Amino acid sequence: MNRILFEKEEVRGGIVRLDDFRAWHVLDVLHGEVGQKLKTGIVDGDIGESEIAEIDGRSVTIAVGAGRPGPAPWIDILLAPPRPRVMKRLFPQLAAMGAGRIVLVGAQKVEKDFWGATMLKEENLRPLLVEGLMQAGTSAMPKVELRKSFRRFVEDELDGAFPGSVRIVGHPSSGRTSIPSGGRKLLAVGPEGGWTGAELEMMERKGFLPVSLGERILKTETATIALLSKLME
Fold it and tell me: Of 43, 57, 59, 188, which is most buried with the most CB atoms under 10 A?
């Protein structure tokens, strides 16, 4: 955790009182003392420095300091959703690496019962995203959207949702390894079984450039992080 984040409703009169894992971090990892400065921020708000005002047992009271805008998201993700346990590992990393919007889309090879998974509830996804933001030291919360129909989203919504984006689709052995520079990027990552031929054709008609990491078929989380790392170069 490289920055402690507060929810907006936790800040009252410029003061936050913590008695959860964040207080543990302040006391046991940062060895917090009254008067000590901390790197802090507001979820979907500014980042800055705050000061420990009081320590009462395992509770910490923090005086929230003035803030400034944090790093802005630089990429959006179109993701065929993996299994819930994979999402638990992947979502913090997407937030940490600068995702602005994450659209979970129902590709053909996505398991149909996925859409009933409790993992999709905001109360389960939000802590994972906040974890990633605190790791990265920023505060811009990714927006998560669900679209069950791949065809309907790509044909009817994509251009309006992501106008002018540089569009990349990850696919094994696509033959392309270079990625255009500049512009806000939209990265599409398919299920572990890969996009179908029809899905790839549909995306290519919408300007997606196929990009390969080689012939090896990677797990969703591995492929996503590897592609993001390549795009950040």
Answer: 188
C-alpha span between 149 and 20 (Å, rounded)? 39
pTM (predicted TM-score): 0.90
The alpha carbon of 58 is separated from its chain's Cα centroid by a whole number of angstroms, namely: 31
Fill in the amino acid letter for 219: K
Please check whether residues 103 and 133 belong to one and the same domain: yes
pLDDT over 90 at 175, yes or no: no
Q: Which domain holds residue 91?
A: 75-232
Residues 16 and 97 placed together within one structural domain of the fold: no
Q: Are residues 112 and 91 in the same domain?
A: yes
pLDDT in tens, 5-49: 999 999 999 999 999 999 999 999 999 999 999 999 999 999 999
* Cα–Cα dist 135/151, whole Å: 35
Q: What is the CATH number of the domain that holds 39?
A: 2.40.240.20
